[in-house]
Amino acid sequence: MPKSKVRSKTEYTQAAAANRTPVKVSSNPTPRWYLTIMFGFLLIGLLWLVVYYLVGDRWEWMANLGNWQNFAIGFGLMIIGLLMTMRWRG
């Protein structure tokens, strides 16, 4: 049976390294207002859910929204805050 050709390791690693392109990362820190809005969304969403659990049945307008709408509002606000963390540069 014929022996298969063995590829040298140096050729393989050099070809893989040649295909990489450097990516420039922004080194500018995020402005203070962006962080304030980001944490604001996270906290307001959390507060919405806590208030709904504690006094949601006593407030007519919140009780009229129902369970799913209150969960959607609370978690939606928190998801917006979490999505904003992807652009946060320390």
From TrEMBL:
The domain of life is Bacteria
Q: Name one Pfam family in it.
A: CrgA
UniProt record, GO biological process: cell division
InterPro entries, per this entry?
Answer: CrgA (IPR009619)
- What keywords would UniProt list here? Cell cycle, Cell division, Cell membrane, Membrane, Transmembrane, Transmembrane helix
Any single GO CC term annotated in Swiss-Prot or TrEMBL for this entry: plasma membrane
Q: Where in the cell is it found?
A: Cell membrane
Q: Which residues cross the membrane?
A: 33-55, 67-86
- State the annotated membrane topology for this chain: Multi-pass membrane protein
User: What is this protein's function?
Assistant: Involved in cell division.
Return the HAMAP family for the record.
CrgA
Q: Which family does it belong to?
A: Belongs to the CrgA family.
> What name goes with this protein?
Cell division protein CrgA
From which organism does this entry originate? Dietzia timorensis
